[in-house]
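ingest -> fold -> write
write: protein_1
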Amino acid sequence: AGSVWHAHEMIFGYAFAVIAGFLFTAVRNWTNRPTPSGGALALVCALWLAARVCVLTPWIELAAAFDLLFALAVAIGIARPMIAGANRRNYFFIGLVALLGLAGATLLIGAGSGSSALAPVASTLGLDLIGLIIAIIAGRVVPMFTNNAVLGAGATRIEALERSALGVLISLFAVDALATLLPAGPSALVTGVLALLAAGVHALRLARWRPLRTRALPILWILHVSYAWLVIHLALRGAAAFDLFPANLATHALTIGAIGGMTLGMMTRTARGHSGRPLLAGRAELAAYLLIQLAALVRVFLPLVLPGAYGTSLTLSALLWSSAFALFTVRFWPILSRPRVDGRPG
């Protein structure tokens, strides 16, 4: 079905690819050791592409196999430098990558076998994992970026709050997994309460990062605003568990607002930094940031205001999303396909 293909490709095609790219870059910096490049990187990309092609054919099981091989290749690509550099603090990313691969393959196997129950379960677990990864990475970099860029910003991390923020997301993943595995698993009430609790904890976490003090720097505020969409998603997911809000709209607060916005923000920042350019957003970047935020607003809230325009909201949101990433591509292709402006390798 088209909805299953859409869920699989956006979660395990697009978002997983972005995470893989981030980890290959980050692990190299964390360990001072190489991650896949050249032919090895081409092989990883080929596995990813093979899964994208096969999912359009009747050979769904083959697509699932390539999904797993891609996840395995990414896991090995980050595990080797981390183990060699004794970077134990980040070993858990290996497990998260493996779980993402399993969730993606499970979705496809369910679709191939005609099991209507597996696809939404695998999608939910995949989104739980991606939300957790966003929360981990954002917690490390957003306060640091804020304090580095804004004099006297005062962005702070409280260890107890940080642990609680990640713990509640891990608990949400566990509850979703148990609800799948056990016939008498946790009820929707438990999920709803946990999601609302998570929303409150993450709202407090974000407030400690002083988001309002970044309003003059688009390359910084995009990260704060995108993280706010994670809070919105958790709040709306909690409301959806009590039948107060449509669940699919809560999902798109995460997928478009948090995932789309955060990846655009991090990609523009990384592309500028790793090409020797100043960490300042130009007009094209600002336009892309605004377009992705509008895409999220239209997809999540327009159907509530104008229920009869649901189809229009989908089309408009898709156009806004596509325009944001088209702008990114046009702006950064020349930057990423040429040598660094400062003459350094990379």
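write: protein_2
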Amino acid sequence: MIRALHLIPALGTGGTELMLYRLMAAMRGGAVENIVVSMTPGGGIADRIRNLGIEVETLKMQPGRADPRGLVRLARILRAWRPDILQTWLYHADLLGLLAAKFSGNPDVVWNIRCSKTDARYYSGMSGLVVRTLARLSPLPAAVIANSVAGVELHTEIGYRPRRWEVVPNGFDLQQYRPDPGARRAIRQELNIPEGDPIIGLVARLDPLKDHSTFLRAAAILLESYPSVHFVLAGAGVTAQNFPFAQALATNDFAGRLHLLGHRTDIPQVTAALDVATCCSTGEGFPNIIGEAMACGVPVVSTD
């Protein structure tokens, strides 16, 4: 039995966190015994992983704050659990995991990169310093996994020189994400959308990277020519109280046409109900929303 410890910055509902959950669910009963450690406390995905029978620990760090106690706690967990592999997810976990491994028996460290080209501001400030530090340290882990060839190309440009690259694309459950006429009818009934009116959707949490403002500008232009179109948006923070949605709703452009669902647990059904799915992000690695829409038989309009 191989023992693997997975270190991740947080366990809120996001693409990376959901992919970790799906991986844990698929590996149950196999040759790998897993434990998950979140740098920060809480998050809905933590409970879902625990419900699989997999232990979840937290380092009790606060988002955006460097806390040396987190390093000490992680080293303590590593010494107690003695994993064969320390799999780290995302930049801050890559750095913390590499440091902790040096103090706790040197398990094989494997970094996990989930992004490709994005806005330059994401590589400035403290985050930029972390990425540049990781580039210098990249020969130290046993391997670096990316979920896209584009991710490998970007990080090679930044200066990553790992001993071994591995590209492992995101996977999708085709029993969960599939064409579903029943879901289409149910969502239309819930939102009071007539059968003949087309639905364009965006499933993404509220984050500058997801660029909801561009979606709303495009939607307003489209309504001038196609006034029957409805726009269905789902994701954490996608509510009428938050900018830019409050601003959009303050105009008459979207009267009865903009449906903000916030966080939903039935994303496969919401996705299957769309006529067109979109991805407006300024940067992604391997966007789950595109693969999920394709699995549901829904055409996609996306940024590059």
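write: annotation protein_2
The first strand starts at residue 2 and ends at 8.
The chain has a mean pLDDT of 92.
pipeline exit 0
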